[in-house]
Amino acid sequence: MTPIEFAKKHGLEVASEGEGNIRDISGIYCCDLLSMVMGRAKEDNALITIMGNVNTVAVGVLADVSCVILCEGIRLDDACLQKAKDQEVCVLYSQASNFDTALKLAKELGLCS
């Protein structure tokens, strides 16, 4: 499932499409401590977080995640959003909690029932 497919199916807002139509989500990494994300997130994971700043975009690039999903209504400011677009990072906005968003995605990926 691509990030854009997940967003459409579950009502997430696409803030930056990036490569969201061409990359598949292979797994999920939930964390708000960006130094941990850098060392532990795997390529093509969806990064689920509430950390909505330019460092999150940079870590998304470094970790080569398929998308960054900001939860709890958190949004990037205009400069951060432009950086995400420039770097072709797919950024989605969810009103739900990290847990609820991750659970929906885990079910879609067949990681749980």
UniProtKB/TrEMBL annotation:
Coiled coil ranges: none
Matches recorded under Gene3D superfamilies: HprK N-terminal domain-like (3.40.1390.20)
Matching InterPro entries: DRTGG, Ser_kin/Pase_Hpr-like_N_sf
Highest classification ranks of the organism: Bacteria, Bacillati, Bacillota, Clostridia, Eubacteriales
Record domain DRTGG: where: 13-105
Name this polypeptide is given: DRTGG domain-containing protein
Domain of life: Bacteria
